[in-house]
């Protein structure tokens, strides 16, 4: 159906009935002030609150956020009215998540209750807080260590200084330090988790601002590792030919269902700590994921069988637009996913 100006979905329901009366015979709707039309029935098939059925309006991404009187379809969009049985949302228990800084100006204390999802570790909820409340929880950065997991480098732009003032982010639950880190601790219902910025025993922590992106993968030799594995695989490579000591390390990893690329970076560190020692990431809420050095979108890319993923250390200006030195890799990143040899 051709789009006409900025007409809402209700306009096209009328148009479908006019143009195709044998297919779209009629619909019945009740108008509510301030809300618009609520669809009661389509083609004589009525919803029934006793049976908990209703006409759900969806497109390819899921239920529409607006009703037929407010939603304006876009070009190429598929709209479906689906008679659906109402299912109440499952009950989710929560825990309290807080970042607190009473040491460095500007001071701050931000807190929110988060739903507990399965057996997710604490670092998962740090990302969740940034996604859901970006004005309050702006970003964080962390360094990944094999078998130990992530060590928090900054939160809301307030970075630690482990050498000068020995500051760090202390993680507490009911005022008691956690015995494990953000990669291992699984929040429980009713937990009161606090990230406290601390300097030499002076407590508290968080801030605001953007975090610098630093990737630290330090190794010396050139190695290639092939695991004895079956099923679909990808090749993961880290390569540095710019700064001494030079290195190039490569490994094949099994593809696991719908895991993002950062999962395989962690896996390489855990399984081959001699070659893949550490890496640092920053969570950037405008990009809805992590930055690793100069490579963006890493937390959103899901590897597919046969991929060859390469991380290369390059000078920052090499991939600036219109710069003549190199040609940007596919997908506008420095990650040579499925790129030709030498790409």
TrEMBL record:
Show the Gene3D superfamilies listed in the entry.
Answer: 2.170.130.30
Q: Which InterPro entries match?
A: Cobalamin_Transport (IPR051588)
Query: Could you identify this protein by its name?
Result: Uncharacterized protein
């Amino acid at each position: 159906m051709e789009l006409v100006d900025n007409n809402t979905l209700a306009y096209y329901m009328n148009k479908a009935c006019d143009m195709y009366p044998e297919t779209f015979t009629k619909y019945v709707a009740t108008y509510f002030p301030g809300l618009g039309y609520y669809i009661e029935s389509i083609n004589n098939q009525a919803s029934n609150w006793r049976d908990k059925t209703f006409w759900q309006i969806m497109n390819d991404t899921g239920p529409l956020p607006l009703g037929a009187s407010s939603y304006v379809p876009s070009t190429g969009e598929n709209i479906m009215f689906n008679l659906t049985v109402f299912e109440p949302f499952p009950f989710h228990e929560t825990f309290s998540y807080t970042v607190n800084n009473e040491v460095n100006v500007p001071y701050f204390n931000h807190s929110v209750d988060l739903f507990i999802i399965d057996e997710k570790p604490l670092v998962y909820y740090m990302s969740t807080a940034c996604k859901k409340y970006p004005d309050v929880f702006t970003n964080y950065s962390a360094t990944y260590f094999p078998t130990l997991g992530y060590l928090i480098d900054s939160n809301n732009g307030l970075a630690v200084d482990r050498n000068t003032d020995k500051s760090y982010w202390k993680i507490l639950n009911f005022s008691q330090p956690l015995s494990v880190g953000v990669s291992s601790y699984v929040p429980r219902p009713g937990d009161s988790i606090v990230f406290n910025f601390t300097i030499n025993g002076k407590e508290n922590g968080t801030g605001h601002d953007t975090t610098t992106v630093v990737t630290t993968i330090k190794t010396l030799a050139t190695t290639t590792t092939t695991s004895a594995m079956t099923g679909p695989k990808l090749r993961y490579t880290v390569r540095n030919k710019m700064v001494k000591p030079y290195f190039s390390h490569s490994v094949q990893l099994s593809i696991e269902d719908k895991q993002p690329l950062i999962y395989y970076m962690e896996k390489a560190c855990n399984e081959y700590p001699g070659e893949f020692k550490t890496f640092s990431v920053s969570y950037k809420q405008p990009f809805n994921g992590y930055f690793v050095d100069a490579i963006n979108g890493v937390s959103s890319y899901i590897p597919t069988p046969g991929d060859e993923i390469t991380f290369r250390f390059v000078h920052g200006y090499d991939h600036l637009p219109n710069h003549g030195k190199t040609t940007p890799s596919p997908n506008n990143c420095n990650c040579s996913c499925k790129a030709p040899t030498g790409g």
